[in-house]
Hints:
B: mainly beta, 5-stranded antiparallel sheet, about 0% helix
Amino acid sequence: ETGVTQTPRHLVMGMTNKKSLKCEQHLGHNAMYWYKQSAKKPLELMFVYSLEERVENNSVPSRFSPECPNSSHLFLHLHTLQPEDSALYLCASSQERHNEQFFGPGTRLTVL
Amino acid sequence: SQKIEQNSEALNIQEGKTATLTCNYTNYSPAYLQWYRQDPGRGPVFLLLIRENEKEKRKERLKVTFDTTLKQSLFHITASQPADSATYLCAIGYSGGGADGLTFGKGTHLIIQP
């Protein structure tokens, strides 16, 4: 596979569930990102990892927990989410921290 | 906080004409500005990057300008085709410390009519 892949593509979960989103990049990039995209709103940066270290956390609620075990993989662990967390969650990677970003197809999350 | 405004939610252009999309930002100028294309149900795809010391960038039928005085970038698609119909996102970034992710606008939905 090439590029940035995300699994699952669709996820429906209850507010008490625990789930994880997975992102994998096959581009040899050093930086990875999580974004949230809600209807009628711009993409919102959630987390940035550079060389597996978290660089930025834009005041994201603690019910979202990122994990970056190596430079190719990024996870977003979800627990006790709210219905307003329903959105498209996009993963991206870049060679360095200020270059163009390559996005995955996203995970469409619905919280009931 | 930095805000990005992109012109109109939908822009209708006749095939063959030039489509011009606007991106305006407030506050301090970014180190670079990027344009992405997003199709329904897909992640954004990178198109062009222009840095603060550059006035213009071209790639095939695409052209981007960056005016730090006006705090504005213009994105042009010449000889537009129906396949160019998509949402186009403007994003800004800053070098150095602090946020390394991009700050995006809401996007402009471009429709090229045959």
